[in-house]
Protein 1
Amino acid sequence: MTRALRIDAFFDFICPWCLIGKRQLNRALAKLRASHPEIELELVWHGVQLLPHLPAQGVPFVEFYQKRLGSAEAVQARQAQVRQAAAAVGLSIDFSSIKTMPNTADAHRLLECATGLGSVAQRDALLEQLFAAYFHRGKDLADSATLLAIAESCGYPRAALADCLLGARCPFDDGGMGARGVPYFLFNRRQVVSGAQPAEVLLQAMHQALAQDVTGSQSA
């Protein structure tokens, strides 16, 4: 019997812990593939709009975090914590380049539409490039021209995706997942891991989900 593992990953582009969690997931998957190459893997990404009420033009990034955390010192401490966690998985996050906290509704719609058009490799490249545009180059992920240019660089036809961009007037429907927080990983609809956990934690959840499937099939 072929064993399969479905991973549902919930994320938002503006959450640095989601990018860090994505890297930890990649590490866990590499270990699983090395030890169990026969397992069929399916990875499904689900967008979650953490801040659906942000205006179309977004809000100033620095002001947003100072208001949320209370002081410039608190912001610096939080960013240092994030940079340290990012460095541990080989990432460099440039907060100084980010000027705007964007409304991510269209970015999520873009990825959702693109997923149905291209290959898995294209989808993965687009997801990676959208994260990089924000955390490495400070791009505005609410800007339609920026989003379409990124999609085009990943091999998607611009015209096929333009109609899915509806602007901030239409929040992205994430099924209420924003209330649970992100990143959030679900393995074979059984095992749940919340937060940017180490690869070892994610790998353990994968093995547990696979073991439960074996047990369930034997008792059926």
Protein 2
Amino acid sequence: MTTRVALVGGTGRLGAVIRGVVDGLDDFEIAAVLTSRSGLDELDGADLVVDASVPAVSIDVVRAAVERGVNVLVGTSGWSAERIALVRPLVDAAGTGAVFIPNFSLGSVLGSALAAAAAPFFPSAEIVEAHRESKVDSPSGTAVRTAELIATARAAEPVDAPHADQRARGQQVASVPVHSLRRPGVVARQETILSGPGETLSIVHDTVDPAVAYAPGIRIALAAARDATGVIVGLDSLIDIGIRTPADA
């Protein structure tokens, strides 16, 4: 049976990559492509909604999908744990599934998992992320997810972040300072810097070609979202990456 996909934001960068992946699958097909000029009634008739829009629109897309009893896969950035908590009761009450993927890159997911695994052993952690100048949100969803995983791994013990009251120290996410760069000549780059007495550990991930880097993760997420029940966050929730943090023990 073929799953009919309504792709929101299908003409954007991420949307174009997702559309290319769906077109290459035998059991999925694009039923509708929604742009900024589309109404959400165009979701009608879809078996799965895939959201690659912008943060300001994304929450309305998720609500519209849930109201229709349709599962949704969210690739739009800007979904923090607090924001996901706003729609979780709606998803649960409807008996549908909502899968939130901050980053479809397997390498990025591994980088975040490595940072979380290392976090309990270092008192200090900071994140520096860079994206193209046209990215409308900051911090990135990947940086937010990484900071939240670090906080979980540290059992909610805040990292050391001196002078956090100064604006130049970045935005604190789950106590972790995050610094966002928006500039031309870059696709996506994140560095998590963990520091302790006498040493520093840096975990760096660069996205060079999104179409190639995201495709495996998009295929995994599509298959999971089609049959999901409840809220699922992160590609790491869908695959066994073989990295255990102290919080898992």
